[in-house]
């Protein structure tokens, strides 16, 4: 037996203990272990061959996720590029190309990123503009949540109400819960935020409230009765509140959007989207960037502009 063969045989007899992890196998309930393959580490069930469940090995970096507090792990794109994401993905959508740090930005409170040998703020707005950002996660249909958000605000120039959900289906198939959910999110939330914002604006004798509405609030849409009703109510809310606040130099306007390329409209098939586009003179969907620019134009518009429902739909309706 050659020396190489002898060494290989001795190596085969060496038993390497598997590293046990806290990841539980969904199929048999055991703690999965770390294995080594041609492409690196992976997790496998110790019950092999009875259980053949495997998972990618996600290396933790010792930093909590800035969104949900669970561990940040190293992930890879399909092309092999490394990035940092939450271990609870897809429930938590946190991701970053730079390694997040446990330290917070002293100016805005956002988490910091490691960039070379220095730390930079993770919020792009705070990096390019002299503003501070405070983020909240909650239900805009909850008055207590809105009150909590506004408790952190001492001065307010502009309020933009852009939260919105839809329900596509026949009215007879809609439950009371579905109806209340759409109306509360799309309409009642504007009441809750405006009620908190108005006192702040009255102190300065100035301010603007801009509501993001829809063309369906003007003309209605079949199979979207609740959504149309909520946006129609938002339009009436805008006009009435504008008259109420005009003497205090506070303007209230709404932007009635056509179909915009957002996650909310991804419920439609490509065939359905193509059919809608055929009806739009601009021959395309609108973009969220265009809506944002429209909001900015309303903010910078003459002070005499108030109580208006401004349509942004590519000539559709």
What is the fold's blueprint, element by element?
Layout: H1 3-13, E1 19-24, E2 31-37, E3 40-44, E4 54-56, E5 59-64, E6 71-76, E7 82-86, E8 95-96, E9 99-104, E10 111-115, E11 118-121, H2 124-128, H3 143-150, E12 158-161, H4 176-204, E13 207-214, H5 216-219, H6 225-245, E14 250-257, H7 270-279, H8 288-299, E15 309-312
Parallel strand pairs: 12-13, 13-14, 14-15
Antiparallel strand pairs: 1-2, 2-3, 3-4, 5-6, 6-7, 7-8, 9-10, 10-11
Helix pairs in contact: 3-4, 4-6
- DSSP summary: helix tally: 8
Strand content: 15-25%
Unreliably modeled segments = none
Q: How much helix, percentage-wise, in residues?
A: 25-40%
Would you give an account of this structure?
- It contains eight helices and 15 strands.
- The mean pLDDT is 86.
- With 317 residues, the chain is α+β, with helices and mostly antiparallel strands.
- The longest helix has 29 residues, at 176-204.
- It has helices at 3-13, 124-128, 143-150, 176-204, 216-219, 225-245, 270-279, 288-299, and strands at 19-24, 31-37, 40-44, 54-56, 59-64, 71-76, 82-86, 95-96, 99-104, 111-115, 118-121, 158-161, 207-214, 250-257, 309-312.
- A hairpin with a 2-residue loop joins strand 2 and strand 3.
- The strands form four sheets. The protein has a four-stranded antiparallel β-sheet with strand order 1-2-3-4, with no helix packed on it. Strands 5-6-7-8 form a four-stranded antiparallel β-sheet, with no helix packed on it. A four-stranded parallel β-sheet has the order 12-13-14-15, sandwiched between helices.
- Helix 3 (143-150) runs parallel beside helix 4 (176-204) and helix 4 runs parallel beside helix 6 (225-245).
């Amino acid at each position: 037996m050659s020396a190489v063969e002898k060494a290989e045989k001795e190596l085969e007899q060496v038993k390497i203990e598997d590293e046990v992890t806290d990841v539980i196998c969904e199929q048999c309930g055991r703690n999965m272990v770390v294995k080594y393959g041609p492409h690196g580490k992976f997790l496998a069930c110790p019950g092999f061959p009875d259980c053949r469940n495997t998972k990618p090995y996600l290396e933790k970096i010792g930093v909590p996720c800035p969104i949900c507090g669970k561990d940040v792990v190293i992930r890879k794109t399909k092309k092999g590029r490394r990035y940092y994401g939450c271990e609870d993905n897809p429930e938590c959508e946190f991701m970053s190309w730079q390694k997040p740090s446990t330290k917070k930005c002293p100016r805005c409170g956002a988490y910091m990123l490691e960039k070379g040998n220095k730390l930079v703020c993770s919020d792009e707005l705070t990096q390019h503009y002299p503003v501070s950002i405070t983020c909240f996660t909650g239900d805009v249909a909850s008055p207590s949540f809105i009150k909590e958000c506004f408790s952190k605000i001492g001065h307010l120039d502009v309020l933009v109400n852009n939260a919105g959900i839809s329900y596509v289906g026949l009215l007879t198939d809609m439950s009371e819960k579905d109806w209340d959910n759409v109306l509360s999110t799309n309409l009642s939330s504007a009441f809750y935020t405006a009620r908190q914002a108005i006192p702040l604006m009255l102190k300065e004798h100035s301010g603007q409230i801009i509501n993001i509405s829809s063309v369906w609030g003007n003309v209605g849409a079949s199979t979207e009765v609740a959504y149309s009703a909520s946006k129609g109510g938002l339009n009436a809310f805008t006009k009435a509140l504008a008259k109420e606040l005009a003497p205090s130099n506070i303007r209230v306007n709404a932007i009635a959007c056509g179909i915009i390329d957002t996650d909310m409209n991804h419920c439609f098939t490509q065939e359905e989207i193509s059919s809608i586009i055929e009806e739009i003179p601009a021959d395309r969907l609108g973009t969220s960037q265009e809506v944002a620019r429209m909001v900015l134009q309303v903010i910078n518009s003459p002070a005499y502009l108030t109580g208006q429902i401004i349509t942004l739909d590519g000539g559709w309706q």
